[in-house]
Structures are given as C-alpha cells and as structure tokens.
Amino acid sequence: MKKRKTKNENENSISIFTNLPPFSPSIPENSETLKPSSMVVIIHPNTCYRGCCTSDAIPLQLPSSSYSLLSPIAKGSESTVFEATLDGRRVAAKKPVLSTSDDLDKFHRELQLLCSLDHRGLARLVAAHARPPNYLFFFEFYESRNLSEKLHLEEWTPSIQQSLVISLELANALKYLHKLGIVHRDVKPANILLDRNLHPHLADFGLSMYKKDLKHISVENWKSAGKPTGGFHKKNMVGTLIYMAPEILRKDIHTEKSDVYSFAISINELLTGVVPYTDLRAEAQAHTVLEMSYTEQQLTAAITSQGLRPVLVQPEAGVPPSLVSLVQKCWAPNPSERPSFDTIVEELETIMKDVVKTENMETYDALPSFNSLDHYQNGIKDIPRFEENLNWMSQGEQLAKNISNIENSNLRLWSTSQCEPLHYQPTLSCGSFATCGRRETMEDTHFLLPQMCNEKDVHAFGIFDGHRGAAAAEFSAHALPGFLQDLGYTSSPSEALTEAFIRTDIAFRNELVLHSNSKRILHKDWHPGCTAVATLVLRDKLYVANAGDCRTILCRSGHPVPLSKDHVASCPDERARVIKQGMDVRWQMDTWRVGQAALQVTRSIGDDDLKPAVTAEPEITETSLSPDDEFLVMASDGLWDVLSNENVISIIKDTVKEPGMCSKRLATEAAERGSKDNITVIVVFLRPVSTAERIY
Ligand SMILES: Nc1ncnc2c1ncn2[C@@H]1O[C@H](COP(=O)(O)OP(=O)(O)OP(=O)(O)O)[C@@H](O)[C@H]1O
Ligand SMILES: [Mn+2]
Ligand SMILES: [Mn+2]
C-alpha cells in the first residue's frame, strides 16, 4: 500500500517539488524512505491531490503527524465529526463517509466551495486533507455546540438580545453566501454552531450548491444527493423536513428564498425554544396534524396546502412585534413574497436599535458595528439559572442519615442469617463506569453497595438517569439506598424496593416544593426527574426494580436474560396505563411522548408535573441464581440506545474479566457507536473469575 506508484485515489501518493510553494514546508509522513539528500521533499500543500481545489491560505494536504483525531463529537449519515488537534490547536475534523466515486467528487466540490468562503458567520475551514487514503475537513472548533443542542438539551433560554444577535449574524452570513451565488439548502439549528461567546457560525455545506447549478434539482435529487434521507433515517428525515420550504416539499426548484424560509423556522425555534410542530399548546389547526398518528406525508400536505407553520413566537416577553412579523414574512408560502437577506439584515438592525434603546442598555452608537458584537454580547448576563446553591446530593445524603437514625444494631437486613442452608452461593465482584459522553452536563448518577450495612450477603446497586436537570438523580442516588436499608429490617425485599422508590419520589418532590416556597428555586416551571433501576442480591436471590428506561440484563449460560422492561410511551401497555391515569400521550416528531413536557419515559422519580400518571412505582423481577449465571449488566439508556443485549454480552466476553474494565469498555463502545447521551454502566460478576480469565 505504501509505495506503489499507481495513481489510484485509495493509495498514498506524493508529489516532489524542488521549489518551495507558498505554504511553510512540512516534511511528509514517510519522508525517510523518499528523501533524496539534496532535495527538499514536500507535499504541495495548497492544492488537493487531484489539483481541482486550491487555496492561498488553507493547506489542503497535511503530514499525518500534524493532526490527531481525539473523540467523536457527532456521527451523521454521511460523516463523523471528531474533536481533533492540528499543530497543537483544537479543531473539529469532519471525516466524510466516501464509498463511491460520486462521494469523492462531492468531497472535492464541497472543498472547492469551502475554499472560496471567508465570513465570520460561517464555520471556518482551517485546513483539509485531500489526499488518499485520508479525506478530512478541519474546521475551527466551536465550543458551545450547535443551536439545537443548546436549546433542547441544555434548555438554554436566550434573552431577546442574544436571539437578535444570533439572528442578525446568521442573516449576514446568508446574505454573504447569496451574494456569492451560493444557496445553503440545509439551514437548521443543528447546523448553526455557537462559539464560546454564543456567536453563530453556519456549518455543513454538504448540500450547498451554486444557484446556477440548481435549476433542475428537485427534491428527488435532493434526497439522492445523500444526506438525511439517503439511508431513510426517519428521525433525521423529519428533523430536516420541518425546515424545508413548501416549494421544496412540492418538489419545485430550490432558490435562495428557500433558505429564507428555513431561516424563519430556525429563528422562530430560537425565540420560542420549541421544536417546530411539537408544542401541544398549538392552536387547533396544528392539533389536527399533530394527532397521534400524523405521518410525514400528512405534515408535508399540511405545510404545502394548508399553510401550516410552527406556533409563531408571541409578541409578549419583550419580543418586538416587528420581529414577529418579520418571521411571518420570511415563511410566506410564496417564495417571491419572502424578503431577501439584504432586507432582512436591514430590518433586524432596526429592531436591534429599538431594543437596545428601550432596554436602555449600552447605547447603539457605542457598539463597533452589528457585524462584530463581541463587546455588546459580553455585556449580556449569564444563562439564567433555575436554582441557586442547591446541592441535591447533600440533600439526599442528609435525608438518608435522618432515616437511619433508628437503632437497628441487633436486627439483620432481610433476616439473611436465618435462611435455610443454601443450594448455591454466588461470588460477587462489581465495578462501574460513568461518562458524560457528548452531552455537556452529566445527569446520570449511581451507587454501589457491595456489602450493604456490612452484611456480606447483601449487595445493592442502582443507576439514576436524570432529565430536565440532574437534581432528581443526584438526590435519589443517596436517598434511595437510605430508604432501602431502613425498610430492609421490616419488609420483604420486593416490598422494600417498591416502597424505597415511592418514598424517594415523595421526598424529592417535597424538597422541591420546600425550596420553591423559600425562593431558592427561581424557575416555577422546573420539574426535574430521573429514571431508576436498582438491583438487590440476597444470597442466591436477585431482585431488580425498575422505573423508566434504564435496563438490567443477566448473562445466563452465555445468553442475555432481560430482568427489566423499558417503561417508555412507545410500549402499548405503558401508554394505555398513562392515558388511563388521565395524562396525554401523543406521537411527537419521532416517538410517543407524555404530557406537555413530552417525556419519553412513563415511570420516574420526580417529574411532579406528570404525577401520578408517570408513576415512581417500579416493576420488580425476582430470579433464583444458579451456577449458570455469569454476570449482570445494568446501564442507563445511553448504552442501550446503541448496543443490543447480545452486543453487550459479546463485548464482555472478549474483554478482560474485571468489572470496572468491562463497564468502561461498554461505555466507550457505546460512545464510539454514536450514543448522544450520558452513559453509566455497572457490571457485576456472579462467579469467581479465574486469574487467567481476568487477563485474557
Ligand atoms: N467546527 C465544529 N465545532 C464543534 N462542533 C462541530 C463542528 N462541526 C460540526 N460539529 C458538530 O457535529 C455536528 C454535525 O456536523 P455537520 O452538520 O457538519 O455534519 P453532517 O454529517 O453533515 O451532519 P448531518 O447528519 O446533520 O447532515 C454538528 O451539529 C455539531 O454538533
Ligand atoms: Mn448537520
Ligand atoms: Mn449535514
């Protein structure tokens, strides 16, 4: 592979120059084998391997020693984006999947286009590697993730000023693209990257085209041009569909006015914080489309023929009416009625001036210009916080201490000492691994109590996966073992588990009420929750209690045995139960979701806006252990989203038999396979593992 000389895109090839090209010389990776003594050997860095892409400023072939790919940040249908370093600098490396020669042509087209762009509102290409066998784009790294994640994962609530800055800078970037004759064709929050100061940078030029080439591109070509629909990934398809202009949905020609439409949908999402078409407070019209079983076709029909749009931002809460009507103009059904970005920029600047004046903030004249608003933006307050100095972990801990005040010293947990002689006694060893993964915040917690209350035959483990904040998970990881222990002196194992879940839920919601009354919680609409799974091993009996979508499996004779059921609204039994208890369950975007909060899980601790339908009562399984039982795996849904039960068993089979290492290996594998969530894994071996097995 290394030294054959045929010109094939899949092989290494090096050009030799005696004169230095304008870019600083770098010695190619395999220079030792090729370097003649009197010649400087150098890759022509500013031209791609084919010679079709050139840039004065951007190196297009790199020595492999100059960069290294660190962890993956995102995996799309067409590429994987990595955090990477390039000459010591933090960058984002986009590695496209290139399987056909068409893909290669597309890579070169995208590279040519990127080389011609230079605008602060666009994701900046800093280098590329366009030499077989490696094809990579290197972009400046934007630290605050994309606007979609910022709004919906982090639940960021921007101020009106922040929204205006983002809208205006984005409009300027699109104005620039359109001036160059380029239509972006994929404007959506997931493609708007935010830097540290929350300035937007439009990214993902995978679908961008010169207007002159667009004449005959219909949606069919758009789909086959790869991208979300290529693999017909339902989630991605709908995710993109909702930003697509009616003319595109009708398979007409894409123009720059289609970008204006997508801009309007995105800006409205920024201003409302609501994913288009998912808000249950929508007016009647939207309801008909959002009924349980609406399909892609129905949504398409409603957008194109009935003029359905997302719920428009309301001119309350400081949103100027002129901004509301600008959004409306930009999503007009008729493309020719939509303003151009020249007009949009002008209008946004006027709105910005008015807002600055009325808010009596720094005066407009003091600002350098609206194209460089760092100064202005720095004056904007931090992200509003929901709570102040509340440590939910210590709240839970305190509670657990209070419970165990009772003097129980001469009682035994679940009377373990009185059991009749055993058929089988498992030998336990446990380990865990927890990672934030691609999320910015960690909302999973867990506990390991290999010898609960110093009882050598009592083992308890638990995982909590928080949502709408980490509060419930942090609280429960301490409170639940406290309750469980207390109940262990009086109740049967299953009763104790059920009761511990219920008491934890009540205690957490009480704390929440207490703190809202004392004004330590600043946001009245804050309803944090968590799913929970807890396992109790008492000699040869194994009890698993589950509420939500964490999961526990047992490996028995080499095969997975599920010990818990996922409580999600897509499960018909659970859906029926929730509906019966008076809570709305609707199909929203990609799946069934509960209530206004659009929660996917149907059982949890916390979530007091959804009680009692979203119950904290767990389902319990009881299993008798035998020598066939090898190990247990408990994990949050971040693992199960991307790995099947069988996958998990086979990964453990070829991992060193050390529970901590197995847990880490599983979490790492899940992250590599694109899990977007926090991942927590607990592995418990149930048999002694021989030294040899531990090593191999
Ligand atoms: N320069 C960057 N800095 C930080 N994160 C980035 C950067 N570029 C991309 N990302 C992350 O990777 C994600 C995917 O990037 P991009 O849209 O370019 O890839 P894609 O494969 O075309 O994705 P899609 O599946 O949406 O088409 C972005 O939404 C963002 O979260
Ligand atoms: Mn993208
Ligand atoms: Mn993309």
Automatic annotation (TrEMBL):
Family matches, as Pfam families: Pkinase, PP2C
Reported cofactor(s): Mg(2+); Mn(2+)
One GO MF term attached to the UniProt entry: protein serine/threonine kinase activity
Domain Protein kinase: start-end pairs: 67-351
Catalyzed reactions per annotation: O-phospho-L-seryl-[protein] + H2O = L-seryl-[protein] + phosphate; L-seryl-[protein] + ATP = O-phospho-L-seryl-[protein] + ADP + H(+); O-phospho-L-threonyl-[protein] + H2O = L-threonyl-[protein] + phosphate; L-threonyl-[protein] + ATP = O-phospho-L-threonyl-[protein] + ADP + H(+)
E.C. no: 2.7.11.1, 3.1.3.16
Record-linked InterPro entries: Kinase-like_dom_sf (IPR011009), PP2C (IPR015655), PPM-type-like_dom_sf (IPR036457), PPM-type_phosphatase-like_dom (IPR001932), Prot_kinase_dom (IPR000719), Ser/Thr_kinase_AS (IPR008271)
Residues annotated as domain PPM-type phosphatase: 429-686
Gene3D superfamilies: PPM-type phosphatase domain (3.60.40.10), Transferase(Phosphotransferase) domain 1 (1.10.510.10)
Keywords for the protein's UniProt record, in alphabetical order: ATP-binding, Hydrolase, Kinase, Magnesium, Manganese, Metal-binding, Multifunctional enzyme, Nucleotide-binding, Protein phosphatase, Serine/threonine-protein kinase, Transferase
SMART domains: PP2C_SIG (SM00331), PP2Cc (SM00332), S_TKc (SM00220)
Family: In the C-terminal section; belongs to the PP2C family. In the N-terminal section; belongs to the protein kinase superfamily. Ser/Thr protein kinase family.
Name of this protein: Protein kinase and PP2C-like domain-containing protein
Organism the protein comes from: Dioscorea cayennensis subsp. rotundata (White Guinea yam)
